[in-house]
Amino acid sequence: MTLARWELAQWGHLDPDKRLDQALASFRAQCGEGGLPSVFVAMAGDAPVGMASLIDDDMQDRAELNPWLASVYVRPEWRGQGIASRLVRRVEQEAREHGIATLHLFTPVRQALYCRLGWQAFEECVYRGEAVTIMRRELGESA
């Protein structure tokens, strides 16, 4: 439930009709044996402090760019400790282990984080009313 709430709080404006029960169902559908889709959670003891996902479709009008790194979020009080970077690397590792050669993401403001991790800007566009950068990571590159 916590992850679904985070998702709605951070990105709910991109899908204003999405309800908490729908977000929860989406996260549950992403949990499983590994591969695509997958959800990863950073924990501090018993408490979740961050998350990231490997999903097939994050930008419905750009289906040709699948799969995606999505839902990278770290609670504000835990930021600046490398948690987001570790979550991104974990998603990249999962993708590599399942034969995925290229990942995509979109972000309105965190381009610098992803550039430091080896991602490259691919395209600037407006998605659901928000200016975003689509980024790409070729997973054959060294991490």
UniProtKB/TrEMBL annotation:
Database matches in InterPro entries: Acyl_CoA_acyltransferase, Bact_Acetyltransf, GNAT_dom
GO molecular function: acyltransferase activity, transferring groups other than amino-acyl groups
Location of the N-acetyltransferase domain: 1-140
SUPFAM superfamilies in UniProt: Acyl-CoA N-acyltransferases (Nat) (SSF55729)
Gene3D superfamilies, sorted: 3.40.630.30
Record keywords: Acyltransferase, Transferase
PANTHER family named in the record: AMINOALKYLPHOSPHONATE N-ACETYLTRANSFERASE-RELATED (PTHR43877:SF2), AMINOALKYLPHOSPHONATE N-ACETYLTRANSFERASE-RELATED-RELATED (PTHR43877)
Protein name stated in the entry: GNAT family N-acetyltransferase
